[in-house]
């Protein structure tokens, strides 16, 4: 989702700038028109030259449909840019959590445990942190080299380790999976 928003923001930048400048030109063209349009009571008091029954105005430089298209492009770009920034921040945050082997809730619990044990002069160790690379391997379910393609790049229906309620604590090793 983050990559999609960034892609739309980058690829739509020129469209956004063109649409924005077109609307700005339309706003300023209204201010530059000479004369006063004749409406309502002006027709009754004879502001029009004799023999003319209606006031002819030139066609607007942009139709209603064109203005709506320009506004839609601006809305699309602003929306995808802001959502891209917000999702980008969340993506980076969760990448950090995966690298630490924590969930959002576990981060708060582990922080309190570190503070509690630091008061006693002890060091807290998260039992589910296997190192950055191994945490990502556990997250994606990578067990051998071919899994980088079959489980990450392609859709995968492989079951996760365990039953989802309990987790095994792996013994401390340099590399959990030799990939």
Automatic annotation (TrEMBL):
Q: Please indicate which superkingdom the organism of origin belongs to.
A: Eukaryota
Could you tell me the keywords of this UniProt record?
Membrane, Transmembrane, Transmembrane helix
Query: Membrane-spanning regions, if any?
Result: 74-96
Entries under InterPro entries matching the protein: PFA4/ZDH16/20/ERF2-like
Q: What is this protein called?
A: Palmitoyltransferase zdhhc16a
Its source organism is: Ameca splendens
